[in-house]
């Protein structure tokens, strides 16, 4: 009798969660906007590509600064050495990286551009992680009778709404002070605009 009662409660729990996630994905949240970027590339691939590009720019810039620093530190004002450094970096070392051959003064702006792409991809990647957590804990809540798993599952869904509203609130707050960040304005809003 008790096992039948627990199984009935688990089935009701699963049905309620299925109803909540269905309503959430159909009416409240547009999950397609967090799967792919604006360039039709999967978010997870774009995220790791942006991480690779940021570290490539940093390694390239630091090694270029070290080479120029060593040339200046040894007081070698021979143009042959500077031409060799430029030729080495442009012709050989830049082939290792997936970045163009930037000048030393362009590297910080390129790093900040890639960091903007990285944060935008991280923002979308957070939604995917929260959705996976919600599904995993819903399944665990079905197999175990611990309400903690159901709370974590529903909390992950609610957190997906809260993160989006936090970004929108930050954007609106900065607009009050006439401060605009293009990366913040370009972030996707996966919530239905009719509801929020």
Structure notes:
The chain has helices spanning 2-28, 32-35, 43-73, 79-91, 107-143, 147-176, 182-185. The protein has 196 residues and is an all-alpha fold. The chain has one domain (2-185). Helix 3 runs antiparallel to helix 4 (79-91), helix 3 (43-73) runs antiparallel to helix 5 and helix 5 runs antiparallel to helix 6. The longest helix has 37 residues, at 107-143.
Short description:
This protein is mostly helical.
Shape: elongated
| Proportion in helices | over 70%
Query: How does the helix and strand content classify structurally?
Result: mainly alpha
Pattern of helices and strands: HHHHHHH
Main β sheet profile: none
Spatial separation of the terminal alpha carbons: 45 Å
Rg, Å, rounded:
25 Å
The number of helical runs is 7
Q: Could you tell me the mean pLDDT?
A: 83
Runs in which pLDDT lies below 50 for 5 or more consecutive residues are: none
Q: What fraction strand?
A: under 5%
Q: What is the count of structural domains?
A: 1
Number of strands: 0
Transmembrane segments: 7-28, 122-139, 151-170
Keywords: Membrane, Transmembrane, Transmembrane helix
């Amino acid at each position: 009798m008790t096992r039948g009662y627990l199984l009935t409660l688990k089935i009701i729990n699963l049905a309620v969660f299925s109803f909540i996630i269905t309503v959430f994905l159909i009416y409240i949240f547009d999950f397609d906007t967090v799967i792919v970027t604006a360039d039709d590339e999967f978010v997870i691939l774009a995220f790791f590509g942006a991480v690779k590009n940021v570290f490539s720019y940093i390694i390239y810039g630091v090694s270029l600064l070290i080479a120029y620093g060593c040339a200046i530190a040894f007081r070698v004002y021979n143009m042959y050495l500077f031409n060799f450094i430029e030729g080495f970096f442009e012709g050989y070392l830049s082939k290792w990286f997936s970045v163009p051959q930037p000048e030393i003064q362009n590297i910080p702006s390129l790093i900040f551009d890639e960091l903007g792409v990285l944060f935008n991809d991280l923002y979308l990647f957070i939604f995917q992680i929260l959705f996976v957590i919600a599904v995993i804990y819903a399944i665990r809540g079905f197999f175990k009778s611990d309400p903690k798993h159901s709370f974590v599952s529903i909390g992950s869904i609610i957190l997906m709404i809260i993160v989006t509203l936090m970004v929108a609130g930050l954007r609106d707050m900065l607009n009050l002070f006439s401060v605009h960040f293009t990366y913040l304005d370009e972030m996707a809003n996966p919530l239905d605009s009719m509801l929020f």
